[in-house]
Amino acid sequence: MSRSRIRIRKAVIPAAGLGTRFLPATKATPKEMLPVVDKPAIQYVVEEACAAGLGDILMVTGRNKRPLEDHFDRNFELEAVLSRKRDDKRLAQVRESSGLADIHYVRQGDPRGLGHAVLCAAPHVGDEPFAVLLGDDLIDPRDPLLARMTQVQERFGGSVVALMEVPAAQIGQYGCAAVRATGEGDVVRVTDLVEKPAPGTAPSNLAVIGRYVLEPAVFDVLRRTEPGLGGEVQLTDALRELARGAGGPVHGVLFSGRRYDTGDRADYLRAIVRLACEREDLGPDFRAWLLGYADHELRTMGPDSVSSSDWPLLRNDSAVSTNS
């Protein structure tokens, strides 16, 4: 069986970052454990991997990340208390995270960048394709991006990245792809990649977001990849070499669905508001309060104080973009 036909079953979640943008909250709490409504951000990512059929998960962690392991382990004392109280709903919620997947852990040691974190997964992954999911990007479960990416990898082989159009002013915050069309509307062939291009130099407005499906050939490339931007080993640099013929093609899946960016404080707050508004148990009351608050802001501070793009969200318009 060729590599391109091997069913992808393993996922790697890099989780060794210090979360400095969220200090002081992340002084003693991993940023991955910050709640998004009522679940830690990392649980959304694990659930996404499982929904795509990837039940073998490796988390690449660092110091002070023990709460990640505790969250996905059993808590017998808490379960016993909830059981005695016959609180079946909360008992099921507590048990859910420990039964999601077969989760393993490895420490990155020195924080030498995303490429180095992925390389730490080589002994666990072995000689088979695998997925990488970054915890700063939450993908709505109604938009099965990862499942589509595994389909593309199984068809074309090589590696696959998730691409999303962003405003030209923002492309310098991402890896950026040069592409050419294929025979499928949502699939492109990646011909070049640039990490955080300088203003005016980006080859497109297609940003690489935090989902990858990688051929194991990436490990050999990462081993010889020198530190790049920021003195770190950049996964983008290794994928650029692969795209130029060093180990199989690189394709991109064009994504236009619901993505919640939890990478900085403002977008993290927006993600919580959007997800809370869409919850059946929280949404109606929360939207009513939010409409009242927005109306108060409009009356006291003027119409420019609230963005018009937020009004469809408050009206529960399902077509609203979640990428602003």
Automatic annotation (TrEMBL):
Keywords: Nucleotidyltransferase, Transferase. One of its GO terms (molecular function) is nucleotidyltransferase activity. It is an enzyme of class 2 (transferase). It holds the Pfam family NTP_transferase. Residues 302-324 are annotated as: Disordered. It catalyses: alpha-D-glucose 1-phosphate + UTP + H(+) = UDP-alpha-D-glucose + diphosphate. Residues 10-273 form the Nucleotidyl transferase domain. It comes from the Bacteria. NCBIfam families: galU. Belongs to the UDPGP type 2 family. PANTHER family: UTP--GLUCOSE-1-PHOSPHATE URIDYLYLTRANSFERASE. This is UTP--glucose-1-phosphate uridylyltransferase. It comes from Streptomyces blastmyceticus.
